[in-house]
């Protein structure tokens, strides 16, 4: 397959290439859809002993070159996936991040994994996923296992995965029933959920360190649609019944949640998007060996936290990779 894959320069600049994966007609009627795979080019002085596939969350895309370098320093070739209608893959007229079922993303992940396998045959693959990607990816792995698919996937790292709906019990029961009903007739209806300080804690226009593309990742995020949230709630229900992802899993989360629509110093040292107690509660539903590590003062994306929690998160991943034999050369550069 690798000879058939056409790579072109990526917006991240030198050392990064992208490939568009055409996926055909959108099941939700918004034209043809595609995913975009971005790879960090393996340098001449680097030895590859495995690979990593990164899956972003809602209102997000792959831009974290520091994350790619971290894994490359440990012998793992890095691939970032922008899912259909997300980031680089969104086309004119398409509703950002919209899918009426999370199963639609199976094709994006299957095709990406095939590209990685062709580039690095016989080598183990680690899946790394953030937030909504941290729900999509375990569900996909469980479906592959039940279908008898043989995977090169050897490990799963989840960065603040979205395992349940925030808010009180009525939001999760009565609210979910209402979502189901409205999604049948107005799936693209946008929900009025209020603003968040999260984006401004990340971007250089606020208090953050990262100059990401605000067209692909807006400060205030894209609107959440009823049909998409209904798909997420169905995914939550499947997770809560128990999965078997078939590989060891590491779950990273902040040690606390801080709800606020106004910025304070606490906004930089907590998850302002998800309830971290829910992540802890449902992590056991992944099946098999699961390690959950709270990272002190981490943001929602632990790898975009302030320097000290970010360093701690990288150190935890480094240790976990080594303990599971996913880093072959133990003399590689540290975190």
From TrEMBL:
Q: Which InterPro entries match?
A: AB_hydrolase_fold, Hydrolase_4, MAG_DAG_Lipase
The protein's matches in SUPFAM superfamilies, at most eight in alphabetical order, are given as: alpha/beta-Hydrolases (SSF53474)
Keyword GTP-binding assigned to the entry: answer is no
Name the keywords, alphabetized: Hydrolase
State a single Pfam family of this protein. Hydrolase_4
Q: Domain of life here?
A: Bacteria
* Record protein name field: Alpha/beta hydrolase
Which organism is this protein's natural source?
Answer: Nocardioides imazamoxiresistens
């Amino acid at each position: 397959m690798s000879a058939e894959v056409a790579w072109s320069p990526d917006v991240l600049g030198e050392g990064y290439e992208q490939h568009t994966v055409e996926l055909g007609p959108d099941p939700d009627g918004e034209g043809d859809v595609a995913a975009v795979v971005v790879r960090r080019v393996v340098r001449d002085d680097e030895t590859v002993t495995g690979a990593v596939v990164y899956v972003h969350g809602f209102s997000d895309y792959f831009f974290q070159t520091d994350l790619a370098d971290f894994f490359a320093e440990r012998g793992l070739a890095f691939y970032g996936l922008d899912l259909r209608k997300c980031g680089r893959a969104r086309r004119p007229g398409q509703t950002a991040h919209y899918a009426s079922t999370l199963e639609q993303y199976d094709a994006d992940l299957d095709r990406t994994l095939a590209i990685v396998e062709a580039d690095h045959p016989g080598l183990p693959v680690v899946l790394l996923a953030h937030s909504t990607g941290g729900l999509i990816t375990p569900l996909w792995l469980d479906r592959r296992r039940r279908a008898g698919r043989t995977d090169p996937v050897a490990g799963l790292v989840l960065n603040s995965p979205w395992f349940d709906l925030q808010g009180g019990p009525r939001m999760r029961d009565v609210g979910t029933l209402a979502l189901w009903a409205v999604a049948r007739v107005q799936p693209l209806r946008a929900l009025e959920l209020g603003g968040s300080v999260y984006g401004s804690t990340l971007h250089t226009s606020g208090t953050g360190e990262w100059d990401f593309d605000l067209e692909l990742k807006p400060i205030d995020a894209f609107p959440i649609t009823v049909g998409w949230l209904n798909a997420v709630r169905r995914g939550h229900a499947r997770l809560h019944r128990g999965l078997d992802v078939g590989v060891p899993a590491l779950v990273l989360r902040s040690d606390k949640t801080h709800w606020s629509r106004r910025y304070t110093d606490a906004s930089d040292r907590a998850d302002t998007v998800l309830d971290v107690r829910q992540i802890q509660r449902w992590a056991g539903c992944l099946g098999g060996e699961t390690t959950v590590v709270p990272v002190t003062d981490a943001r929602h994306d632990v790898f975009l936290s302030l320097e000290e929690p970010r360093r701690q998160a990288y150190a935890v991943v480094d240790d976990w990779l080594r303990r599971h034999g996913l880093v072959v050369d133990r003399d590689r550069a540290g975190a």
